[in-house]
Amino acid sequence: MMQLRFDDEVVIVTGAGGGLGRAYALELARRGAKVLVNDLGGGADGSGGSQTPAARVVGEIVAAGGTAIANCDSVATPEGGRAIVQAAMAAWGRLDALISNAGFLRDKSFLKLEEADIEAILAVHLRAAFNVGRPAFAAMKDSSRGGRIVMTTSASGLFGNFGQANYSAAKSGLIGLTRTLAMEGKKAGIRVNVVAPVAGTRLVTGEERTGDDPLAPQNVAPMAVLLAHRDCPCSGEVYSATGGWYARVFTGLAEGWVAAPGENTVEGLLANWQRVRDTASYSEPPDAMTLAGMMAQKLNIAL
Predict the structure, then answer these.
(1) Is 246 tagged catalytic?
(2) 10-249 belongs to which CATH class?
């Protein structure tokens, strides 16, 4: 099987000073990519900062014969996002892929959340996709090569998790953003997808899993690296990755129940609730306009 290479290509990985981002950066560099290793170097709650984590990963890449530069700008601001992309362009004159991975946690139950906890998580997880994604998208669109953007959601963003209202909301928002960017980037050859990783990192377990541990970050890396490659076969999709298990995650629309004349009441809806919820038959609308057409056909109306 021919190895998928990134020779002469430039990839930005945010949050690459450790954990998943480090695993992605090392694998990309091993496959020939020039990697911008971005990491603010903060704590697990986003506090503080240090240049050491990003520099350490760059040192690992260079020692193995690869090419990389460190960057410590914050993904949480538009200025930081622009600086990250500009650094890659200044160093190598191109940008082929972005893996938006940076993040931290501030877990509290809904009523115990403070405004600062909400704003900080939204900034580093959701707004960062705009802050870094917009200049990256622009650079890819301006080139003749297109590019790939990989967003990072989580099981919490897909399915919810107690004590992570802020994090879940931010991670869920990335899915809608990805669906739209996949449509807007299609003509320019820009593919946008989402990885939903589960791994043992300092954010989750307090320390990084390594070696043969199934939850080691390197077991997620194949999915993120494939989605960042020019041969990536999809766009606008979400993929779960953990321990060597990879699976697509999607939103389906159940067949549902169409009320007959006189049945379109609260009581009629309750009486047919199981039909509304039954997922034995479902469809997967590729976009909102297709869904509108499906609705018009099912209801025999013009929208």
Answers:
(1) no
(2) alpha beta
